[in-house]
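step 3/5: co-fold with alpha-D-glucopyranose
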Amino acid sequence: MAKSLSILFITSEVLPFAKTGGLADVSAALPLALTELGHDVRLIIPKYGSVSERRNRIHEIKRLKEIPMEVAGEETIAVVKSSQVVNARAKVQVYLVTNDKYLEPLKGIYTDPKTGKDFPNNDERFIFFAKAALETCLRLGWKPDVIHCNDWQTALIPMFMKEMYAKEPMFAHARTVLTIHNMAYQGAFPASTFAKTGLPERLAPAMEHAGKTNFLKAGIAYADAVNTVSPRYAKEIMTAEYGCGLESVMKKHGEKLWGIVNGVDTEVWNPNTDKLITEKYSLNNLEGKYENKTSLGNRFVMDADLDTPMFGMVARLVEQKGYDLICDSIDKLAALPAQFVFMGEGDKKYETVLTRAAKKYKNIGFFHGYDEELAHLIQAGSDAILMPSRFEPCGLNQLYAQAYGSVPVVAKTGGLLDTIEEYNPKKESGNGFFIQDLTTEGLVATIQKVMELFHNEEQWESLLKTIMAIDNSWKASAEEYVNHLYRKG
Ligand code: ADP
Ligand code: GLC
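step 4/5: write tokens
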């Protein structure tokens, strides 16, 4: 049997500590799945001011109470605390890095909850975190085989390792992996940010892109392996349409690029055991699903009608997720004999349109905010889940939807193309529906097609049973991380 690996997983969001989107789900579920495969995985994450020590059972570590480091030419101190991510089968050690300048005093993760804008010192905050993560690892005296970084917030780590710790024996054999969960977020700051890293000026070009200091570019160039969260998106980001300006950089490093789809944490997203929903249910007992539908309808003060199809959508209120199309089409959607519930937090312009629509139309519901429990109830109580994304690196909601017997209705892009197959009523094959084109007509036509199938009770139930039986668990993808990214090279 191959030797088990020591894997240091560094990320800016992990459930249950901090979450803005799918990165937090992946950052808990993948390390747990790797642990189950027999590897020694440890997580390093920032401890933001909003993370409660008591609720999350966070403890001090005496020997990691004062780690000095330099950011933007000034000394600052990192403090490292300890906790765990646990499920019924595995346990992962978590180190939480904090600091009384960059993390503890701020309530938000990336944005200031008061203004909704990015913190102006996000560059320094994540330079600090990248350095603190490496210093923590050194002080633990634990030699990693793999250092797995995620997104721009940790993308400086491979460069720091190779340029600042080149002679450090603890890192001599560590392989660096960078997962890009979303190319649209690159950590692009003014050129003056480079000096704050403490790296010698001669290295500035490695981080420079379009006149800015670009953290993701440095990560792509320096990591030993790079992957995205689906094979399709790995191809897409080498094109001008999806590369967000970094397509040529991506192409240049194309030989080390790979794509692996995300999985589902079947302990968190399982209608048979879910404590956050009204009534548990399973493939062989769908009755409970209808209780959830009623309770979802009540929550949005809609006439609870089991014969009217309910479409749900849970996504950050950003253009990526297709809210422009939803908002443009809202009157047409309201005119359909169907119900719609939306939940999200983000851009004001979408919030305004959806709030107004929910007031005006009885069959439209909208919750503005972040609510874990409601996210589960929407999955359980909807008949179908909408994902009209402009682009989608992987997407998790379509996988959760399948587990909950809600039919995914998705755009033809990225990870949605890798995980969904169009339903064919003649062959009774497939596991969802594609929105043929992202226009109001295209959206309405697809929704009508889904509604037609919904009213064919027998076929609908057979489709629900098919999708609920799909194995989207993390095991296969976790194995691919090990075999294709961690061990190669
Ligand atoms: P992304 O990471 O781009 O936001 P994913 O589909 O990968 O998209 O993951 C989104 C995750 O965030 C899901 O777990 C979803 O339930 C959750 N989520 C998004 N918006 C909200 C919200 N307003 N409240 C609760 N959970 C949310
Ligand atoms: C990103 C992507 C999403 C993906 C998630 C987790 O936020 O937008 O598609 O599922 O990361 O990898």
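step 5/5: annotate
The CA atoms of residues 87 and 267 lie 7 Å apart.
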